[in-house]
Protein 1
Amino acid sequence: MNSSEAHSDVIIIGAGLSGMPLCRHPTAVKIKNAAFEIFDKGNEIGGTWSENTYPNLSCDIPSQLYSYSFAPNPEWSMTYTSQPEILAYIKRVAHTIQSRIHLNQECVSARWLEDQDLWRVEFLDRTTNDTFVRHSRVLFTAAGFLDIPKGPKSIANIQEFGGRIFHSSHWDHEVDFGGKDVVVVGNGASANQLVPWLLKNTGLRSLVQVVRSAQWIAPKDNQPIRKAQKWVLRNIPFTNRLYRWWLAMKLDLAFVAFKDSTLGRHVRSMLEASLVSYMEKTAPSQYHSILVPSYAFGAKRAILDHGYLSLDNPKAKLIKSQNLTVVGTNQIAGENGIVYPADLIILANGFKTAQLLTPMAITGLDGLNLRDLWERGSDGARAYMGVMVSGFPNLFLLTGPNTLPSGHSTLLGIENSVTYILRLLEPLLSSEGTSKKPHSSTIEVKKDAEDAFNRFVERRMKGLVYTSNVSTWYIDQRTGRNHLVWPGSQLEFWWSRCVEVIRWADFVLSKKKTT
Ligand SMILES: Cc1cc2nc3c(=O)[nH]c(=O)nc-3n(C[C@H](O)[C@H](O)[C@H](O)COP(=O)(O)OP(=O)(O)OC[C@H]3O[C@@H](n4cnc5c(N)ncnc54)[C@H](O)[C@@H]3O)c2cc1C
C-alpha cells in the first residue's frame, strides 16, 4: 500500500465477525459496488477467534446460531463449535473479499473534515512502522469490545516474579507445563475452558486457581452433530433458517428470567435452584461457598461447564482472593497470606470493556473527541441505537454501547445492527432519493434523539437484573452504568433494527458542501 492520501467510499476498522458482514450481507449490495476497504491491526482476520487460541476454547451458543444468516454452515461438527472451526468458517466467508482486507494496519486516529464531508483516517503500518492516511465518506468501527486484555493490576509486586506470565488471549503454545506450578487468575468463561484442559493434558505439578467472584455455571451438552442432521440442513430448503429461528427463540425464553417482574422472579428462582443443584452435585463440597453465586442469575453472562466443576483433581486448589502479592521469585500469596508456589501465571481475567474504542482517537464536529465524551464525560459510552453518536457524521459503530444481547448470540446481534446501518446508509449510497430520504452525502443523528433513546435504555435497564449490585464487565465502573447490554430480548433487538420503520426525523441528512 502506498502512503498517498487515497480515497475510499467506506473504511471499516476491524476484520472480525463485525467487519465482515458489511460486505457480504445481501442488503449490502450497494456497499459491494462501493470502494470499501477493511483494515485490521492483527496479522490474521477473525478478531476474537484468531487472537484467542487457548486450548479447549469453544462457543457458548449453538453453532447454527453462531454463523451468519447469509452464510449458513450445515457442516458444523459439534453442537458448540470450537475456536479452530469458527476461525476456518470466518476465513471461508471472507474469501471473496480478501483483496479488500489490509492486515497489520492499525487505525490510530480519525478526524471528520467538515469542509470536505470526509473522514481522514490515520493508520500505523505495523510491519514498517510507517504512518499513512486514507480518506473515506463513511467510517465503520468494528473494533470489538473484548479486544484489549486486562493486565496483572491485581498482583502486587509483579516485578519480582521470576516465572512466565501471559494472558489467556495471548496463549503461549510453546510452554512446557510438565512439572510446573501454575496459577490461573480468574474464573470466567476462559478459565472455565482452559483449567480442565491444563489438569488433564499437561502433567503440571500443581494448579492454584484464584477466584474473585462466583459465576452461574450451567451444564453444556456438547455433542457431535449427526450426519443425518447435516444432510437435512444441507439439502432441504429453509430447514437451516427454521432451525436458527427455533434456537434463537429458545435462547430468548431465558430473557424472562432477567426481568424484575413477578413472573421473572419466579422463573429466575427456579433456574437458580436447578443451577445450584447442578453445581453442588458436580463440584467438591469444600468449594461450594466459593463457587455458588449469591447474586441474581443473569446479572453476569452465565458460563457453560466444560468439565470445570469436577475440581476433585488432587493437583488443583481453588482459592478466593481479590488480590495477590508476589512474595518470592516463584511464590505468590493470596489476601489471607497463604503462600503458593508459582512457575507460571496465566491471566484469565478478561478484557478492558470500559474502553470501547481505544486506542483510536476519533474527532468529530467542532473538535468533539469521542474518547473524551465516553471515557471522561459523566454519561460514559452512549449512542443512538448503539450505532451513531451525535457530532460524528457518517460514523457507524458495531458492537457499540448497549448492543450486546445478553445470554444470546453476539453474532446475531451484530447482524441486526449491520442491517440497521445499511438501511441508514441508503440515502448516501443510492443515487436517487425520496422526500423522506433525499440523496445525501452526510447523515448525523440529532442530539435530542440520542438522549431520548438513552433515556429509554435507562428506563428499560431499571427493570432488569443487570443493575444488581455485582461486579461485572457489563458495567462501566466509572459511571456505574451498564453500557454493553441491550435491555431487551434478541427478538426485540431484531424487530427494532430490521423491521421497525426508521425514524428519519431523528437524523439530519445533508448534501455535499463542496465538490
Ligand atoms: C475468548 C472469547 C470467547 C467468546 N465467546 C463468545 C461466544 O461463545 N458467544 C458469543 O456470542 N460471543 C462470544 N465472544 C464475544 C465475541 O467477541 C463476539 O462474539 C465477536 O467475536 C465480536 O466480533 P467483533 O468483530 O465485533 O470483534 P473482535 O472479534 O474483537 O474483532 C475486532 C477486530 O478489530 C481489530 N481492531 C481493534 N482495534 C483496531 C484498530 N485500532 N485498528 C485496526 N484494527 C483494530 C482487532 O484486531 C480485531 O481483529 C467471545 C469473546 C472472547 C474474547
Protein 2
Amino acid sequence: MSRRMSRGQRQSAFEALAAAMYEELEDWYDEHPEASFEEVEAQAREKRRTLMGAGLALLVNGRDSGYALEGQPCAQCGREMAYKGQGFGKTIHGLEGDTRLERAYYVCPACGETLFPPG
Ligand SMILES: [Zn+2]
C-alpha cells in the first residue's frame, strides 16, 4: 500500500476498488441469473466488507503513517533515527471490514534502537 498519497490519488484508488467490486457483482449475477434478491444481497455484503476494509486502508495508510517523525533522536544514544519504511502493521477487524494498518518504522544507525510511532 502506498503511503502519503494525495487526496485525489486516494479517491481514484478507492473508485478503482469500487468499480472492480461492481464488476464482480455483474459477473456473478450473469452467472446466477435466477438468484433471488437476498442472494444478490449476500454477495454484495461480503464484497462490501472487502471493499470497505481496503478503502479504509487507503484512507488511513495513504494519509499518514508517522513519516513526519523522521529526524527524531534515538531514545538511547541521541543519534537521528533512520526511516526504514513501512511495516509491522496490524490488522483491524472492524465493523466495516478488515483493514491492514501500516506504521512507519525507524532504526538508530548507531545502536540499533527501534522506534514505532504510536498510531
Ligand atoms: Zn541510538
Protein 3
Amino acid sequence: MFVGHYSVAFAARSERNKIPLWVLFIAVQFLDYIWATLVLLGIEKLRVIKGFTAGSMLDSYFHPYSHSLVTAVIWSCVAALAYKVICSRHGSHDSKSAPSIVGLPVFSHWILDLIAHPRDLAIYDNTWKVGFGLWNYRNPEFALEIALLAIGIVLYLARNVMPAIRKGAVIAFGVALVVIQIGDTYVPRNPLTDKQTVMGVWVFYTLFVLVAFFIERIGSGRQTNIR
Ligand SMILES: [Zn+2]
C-alpha cells in the first residue's frame, strides 16, 4: 500500500478537528518512517527483489519494531500522546478528540498494509505473520489504492471550507499522487538497494508532507482579506 494510506489523512481532517493535513500525512506513514529509519540503521531488514510480488519488490522479512500489530498499537498511542503534548504546549484549540484522530490514522497504516502485504506482518515480535497479499494481484491492488485516495479527497473537500483555488490544488495533488502510483505499480525498473529504497521513502513521504503543508495555505490570505 502506498498512496492509499493518504486517503485516511484526507478523510480524517475536518473543519471541526482542524488538524493540519501535514500532521495527518506524517501520521498515516508514521510506521513507515520508523521502518525506513530502522532499515537505515540496520536494525530492521529488507530485501528488494524484482518480481517479489506483482505490485511490489519489497521483501520486508524482518520489521518487528515498526510493523507488528503490537508495536503498531504502541506507536499509535505514542503519536496520539505526542500530539496531545505538543498541542497543549502551544495552547492550540484543537478539539479533545484530536489526539485520537491522530492515533487512529497511525494505526490505519497497519490495517491497509495487512490488505496489501504478503504474509510479512507479525502479530508480535517476528512471529504469527499475517497479510492478505493483494500485492500479488497488480490491477486490483492499484484500483484499491486509487479508489481509497479518491474517497479520501472527496471527503476532505466536502468536510472542509476552503477557497476554490485550494480545491483545485488539492485535486491536482490527488492527480499527481495517482501518477506516482502508476509509476510505482506499472513502470518497470531495476531494484534499488535496501538503503536506497528507504532513503527514497524518507524523501518522497517528506515531500508529500511539505505539499500538504503548503496546500492548506493556498488562498488563506485572500480569505482573511474578505473578512
Ligand atoms: Zn508500512
